[in-house]
Structure formats: C-alpha cells, structure tokens
Amino acid sequence: MFERLREDIQSVFHRDPAARNAFDVLTCYPGMHAIWLHRFAHILWGKGWKWPARVVSNFGRWMTGIEIHPGAKIGRRFFIDHGMGIVIGETAEIANDVTLYQGVTLGGTSWNAGKRHPTLEDGVVVGAGAKVLGPFTVGAGAKIGSNAVVTKAVPAGATAVGIPARIIIKSDDEAEAKRKAMAEKLGFDAYGVSADMPDPIARAIGQLLDHLQAVDGRLEGMCDALGRLGSDYCAKELPELRDEVFDCVKDRQEDKVG
C-alpha cells in the first residue's frame, strides 16, 4: 500500500511542476484523493459489496468533484490534474501512466449490458473537456485534444482532435528519428516536428527535414563515388550554420506559443 502511495506522489511530481512537496500532494490534490477512494471502493465492488462501494464512490464525488464508478479498472501512476467534472464509467479500463485533465468523460453510447466504456492503454493523455465515448481502445501513448469528442478507436501514438475527433498525427518512429538526427546535425532544436505541435508550421518543418535527410544521403553517395574516382571535391568544408540564427527562430516560435 505504501509503495503505491509513494508511486502516486512521484507521478504528480513528474507531471505537475506546481507540486512542491509530498505533504502538499497528500493534502491538497483532489485527484489523488479520488484515486485512493476509488481503490477502496473497487475492492468492495470486487467482493460483491455493491452498495458500500457506491457509498464510498459517492463520498469521493462529493469531496472532489470527480466521479469514478467503483467497477472501473485503473492501473498504476494514474494522474488526474485539477479533476473537477471528470466522469469515469463502470466498464472503463485505464492502464498505467495515464493522465486526465478536468472535465473529461470516459462514457458509453448505449444502455446495453457488457463493455460500454473505453479502454485507455499506457501513457494516454486526455485533454480538458474531452469526451471519449464507447467500448473501443485508445492506443498506448495517444493524445486526445481538449474538448474533442472521440467515438472511434485511436491508434497508438496518434493525436485526435475536434468534434467528431479526427486523427491529425500518427507517429512514425523511424521518420521521427531521422528528423531528429537531421535537426541535431544542423544544430537546430526540432521544436516543431513532434506530435505536441500538430500545426502547418510543424508539418512544413518536418517535410523540410525529410527533404534535407534525403539530399544529405544522396550527396554522401555522390561524394563516395567521386572519391573512388580520385576526386577531392567533397573534401571542401560546408558553410557553417550559426547557432544564433536557429536560436532566434526558436525564441520567436516560443514567444508565439507562450
């Protein structure tokens, strides 16, 4: 029990820069209180003590503004930030390291018995006000944008936004690795090419880095061929890319985001 408690507190420090110390988290984080009460209610529910489980659940809702059905299955290091207005249905399943923000609903779309609520795999992040409705799976590492209404499965690593939600970015680990390598070679912090910034500028920068990666590979092949022919043309140094130029671009983008 104490190990899980320590793990929960550490998960807050990892995901909330406003957390000051363990006592602060223990006493002032309603998301933590809701999770601990749910664990007790879930044990009662599993033992067949349905009414006491619902009483504990209702007490947690009254105390925190967070409604978690005692039948819901929740994994380790679950973090609820702010939390007010969150609703998690009876057959919802939440894996490890999942984060929910205020106003999120993990609900159903029918009154039929059986699985009615979504399954969130490891590392899913659901933004404020989002509604995830139905018995489908949100894949590991996926992100749901604020106020999105999701009624279909979301692939692992994808980002879903809008009403109804649509997939705007699906991660490609190999492409991301190539882009990061090219950005580092240029001395550029690739702030615009991650799934955290799904906008036209990010996509344009990503395509530019993809193009530069292809050009770089072609040039290396040509230089190898020229070297075998005895040419020293490729021994010439390339023009230096000054860090301050990229720092200036980065600062302007950060100012825009901020």
Description:
This protein has 258 residues and is of the alpha/beta class. The chain folds into two domains: 2-170, Hexapeptide repeat proteins (UDP N-Acetylglucosamine Acyltransferase, domain 1, 3 Solenoid); 173-257, no CATH class. It has helices at 2-15, 22-28, 30-46, 50-64, 173-186, 200-228, 243-257, and strands at residues 67-68, 73-74, 79-80, 87-88, 93-94, 99-100, 105-107, 119-120, 125-126, 131-133, 137-138, 143-144, 149-150, 158-161, 166-170. Strands 3-6-9-12-14-15 form a six-stranded mixed beta sheet. The radius of gyration is 24 Å and the shape is elongated. It starts with a helix and ends with a helix.
Quickly give the structural class: alpha/beta
Tell me the strand percentage band. Answer: 5-15%
Basic shape: elongated
Q: Assign the CATH architecture of the largest domain.
A: 3 Solenoid
**CATH topology category name of the largest domain:** UDP N-Acetylglucosamine Acyltransferase, domain 1
- Low-confidence stretches are 187-197
Work out the oligomeric state of the chains in this entry.
single chain
Specify the CATH homologous superfamily of the largest domain: Hexapeptide repeat proteins
Helicity, as a percent range: 40-55%
User: Main beta sheet: strand number and arrangement?
Assistant: 6 strands, mixed
Separate helix tally: 7
Say how many strands there are.
15
Radius of gyration over C-alpha positions, nearest whole angstrom: 24 Å
**Mean pLDDT rating:** 80
Number of domains: 2
Question: What is the CATH class designation of the largest domain?
Answer: Mainly Beta
The first-to-last residue Cα distance is 40 Å
Strand order of the largest sheet: 3-6-9-12-14-15
